[in-house]
User: Which sequence fits this backbone?
């Protein structure tokens, strides 16, 4: 999804409305008491630390939802890396509208830029590895489309968006079906010919079972380096191999050299912090 389109996504629109209702409620009593409703002004949105930017269009949409007469100008673009003090955007309009939208707009921009910044660090740490770094479904409830957008902006890729767009047979599916082979067979009978079937395995015995069952992708869950190296040898290119579990900035480079195809990490979203971005009234 492109940057301008993400702010118009129906799920994002609902999320913005919910966030504004949560923050403003029946009205901003501080601004109403201090600021004339007709007073005009402008403000700068600034990075306070080195960040990879994500969410500028969403930030602008928050101001638009509060007051459609507010003018919003971006000074950089999503995916850019900026230094402390760099201007991200300028907003102009009624000061009461700028102040009412400020916190919600910055919350979106700080959170999404935080994810993009962390993802960028992971990508840099991987160096020239041929493995593809992907996210997971470990996202903030309601924020998935935004957080996965931020992952892409940071330079990584998306895993499945939900339970509806990819077959991933995990340990509980295997237990409920009585084994890997029957689970894969049942999934194959239901899935159409364009859907790949992925199986999560915990040891080399399960890996061999998944290969025999014809899995297209095999997730090596929390395996040791030795097990993963052996898994690459056993697999011999038959299926795509995905590594998952405990992936960190410290381990990503090592994992990328093991010969696997995909490295998935929930930390890209669930462990990213919001970065420091501020809005300053300038007139």
Assistant:
């Amino acid at each position: 999804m492109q940057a301008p389109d993400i702010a118009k996504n129906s799920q994002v629109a609902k999320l913005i409305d919910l966030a504004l209702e949560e923050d403003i409620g029946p009205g901003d009593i501080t601004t109403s008491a201090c600021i004339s409703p007709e007073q005009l002004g402008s403000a700068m949105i600034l990075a306070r630390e080195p960040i990879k930017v994500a969410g500028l269009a969403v930030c602008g949409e928050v101001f638009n939802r509060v007051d459609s007469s507010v003018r919003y100008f971006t000074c950089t673009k999503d995916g850019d890396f900026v230094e402390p003090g760099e201007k991200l955007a300028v907003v102009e309009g009624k000061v009461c509208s700028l102040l009412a939208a400020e916190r919600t707009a910055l919350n979106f921009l700080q959170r999404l830029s935080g994810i993009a910044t962390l993802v960028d660090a992971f990508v840099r740490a991987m160096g020239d590895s041929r493995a593809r770094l992907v996210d997971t479904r470990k996202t903030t409830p309601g924020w998935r489309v935004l957080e996965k957008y931020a992952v892409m902006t940071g330079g990584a890729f998306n895993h499945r968006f939900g339970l509806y767009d990819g077959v991933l047979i995990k340990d509980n599916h295997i237990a409920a079906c009585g084994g890997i082979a029957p689970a894969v067979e049942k999934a194959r009978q239901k899935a159409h010919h364009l859907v790949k079937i992925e199986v999560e395995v915990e040891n080399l015995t399960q890996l061999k079972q998944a290969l025999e069952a014809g899995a297209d992708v095999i997730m090596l869950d929390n395996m040791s380096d030795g097990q993963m190296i052996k898994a690459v040898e056993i697999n011999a290119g038959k299926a795509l191999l995905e590594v998952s579990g405990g992936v960190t900035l410290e381990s990503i480079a090592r994992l990328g050299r093991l010969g696997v195809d995909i490295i998935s990490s929930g930390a890209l979203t669930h462990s990213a912090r919001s970065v420091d971005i501020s809005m300053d009234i300038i007139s």
